[in-house]
UniProtKB/TrEMBL annotation:
Pfam families per UniProt: ABC_tran (PF00005)
Keyword set includes Calcium: no
Keyword Nucleotide-binding: yes
PROSITE patterns noted in UniProt: ABC_TRANSPORTER_2
Keywords tagged on the record: ATP-binding, Nucleotide-binding, Transport
Protein name: ATP-binding cassette domain-containing protein
Annotated GO MF terms: ATP binding; ATP hydrolysis activity
InterPro entries the UniProt entry points to: AAA+_ATPase (IPR003593), ABC_transporter-like_ATP-bd (IPR003439), ABC_transpr_CbiO/EcfA_su (IPR015856), P-loop_NTPase (IPR027417)
Classification via Gene3D superfamilies: P-loop containing nucleotide triphosphate hydrolases
Taxonomic superkingdom: Bacteria
Length: 276
């Protein structure tokens, strides 16, 4: 099915993502423990937790890079738009994923020009090959995606020459060429200085306001955008608390998640957390 057909066949009433009691083992260790999460279209969400709480494992589960333990009743553990079977490229057109691991694939290795990196997203390929037929509409969508991420000026540059923040903008543009319903961003502000972080968060806010559901994975309360109202707090592979920002971003919940006294403050539209 083409990406456009997939999008047309989806119903707004079906959850974008529905994870029901997912457990993941790595070796002998239980890394995710019966984790459930249901997200509606437009329900911007932050997954917040300390190092080792299972955030990356959850992303790899959603990206189909890891598989959950089968449930006793045989019911599917993960459904995307109500379906439990998708091929990887269909899934990418619905949920774009940008993580530090993806960034490493594009910024090291062989040379790759920025526009090619973005337009090759249509083929789920790293760069263009002789068998990739790039249509004018693909070029236009790639240019639009770069403009949306304020990265048009980077066209012509080699991916390996970009700063962390520039490369991240380009990779989000690459994910956006499919006009995905959701973007899953793993630690999107890692490695950015405070000013770059704020500018980057403002670009993400524009996406959130224009119909892309954001699923943002972070250690930092400060990165929870004003548009995000739903927060899932993880600890030791379990959901410690889930709900709207006001109920989850409290001293007691964040102190319990990070296992040290933390004071959470509201600063305008954002929150901050200080270790006491
Ligand atoms: N292949 C593996 N084998 C054994 N344990 C693993 C494996 N991969 C991850 N783990 C463990 O699973 C736990 C969760 O790891 P994960 O990377 O999902 O956490 P995280 O919340 O993303 O951490 P961080 O914020 O540091 O990136 C950690 O204790 C980690 O050591």
């Amino acid at each position: 099915m083409s990406p456009d057909c997939i999008h047309q066949s989806l119903h707004a009433s079906v959850p974008l993502l529905d994870i029901h009691e997912a457990s993941v083992m790595r070796g002998d260790a239980l890394i995710l423990d019966r984790l459930s999460l249901s997200l509606a279209i437009g329900q911007h969400t932050a997954i917040l937790g300390p190092n080792g709480s299972g955030k990356s494992t959850l992303i790899r589960l959603i990206a189909r890079q890891l598989y959950p333990l089968a449930r006793r009743d045989g019911a599917p553990v993960i459904r995307v738009f109500g379906r439990d079977r998708w091929n990887v490229s269909e899934l990418r057109s619905l949920i774009g994923i940008v993580s530090p691991a993806v960034q490493l694939d594009y910024t090291s290795d062989s040379p790759l020009e920025v526009f090619d990196a973005v337009v090759s997203g249509f083929f789920s390929a790293r760069g263009l090959g002789l068998d990739h037929e790039v249509t004018p509409s693909m070029r236009e969508r790639a240019r639009d995606a770069l403009a949306q991420m304020e990265a048009s000026h980077l066209i012509g540059r080699d991916m390996a020459s970009l700063s962390t923040g520039e490369a991240r903008r380009v990779l989000i543009a690459r994910a956006l060429v499919h006009a995905p319903r959701a973007l899953l961003l793993d630690e999107p502000c890692a490695g950015l200085d405070p000013a770059s972080r704020r500018r980057f968060l403002e670009s993400l806010r524009q996406l959130a306001r224009h119909g892309t559901t954001l699923l943002l994975v972070t250690h930092h309360v400060e990165e929870i955008l004003p548009e995000i109202d739903h927060v899932l707090l993880l600890r030791d592979g379990k959901v410690l608390q889930e709900g709207n920002k006001e109920t989850v971003l409290t001293d007691s919940a964040i102190t319990a998640a990070f296992a040290m006294p933390v004071h959470v403050r509201r600063r305008g539209d954002y929150y901050s957390a200080d270790v006491d």
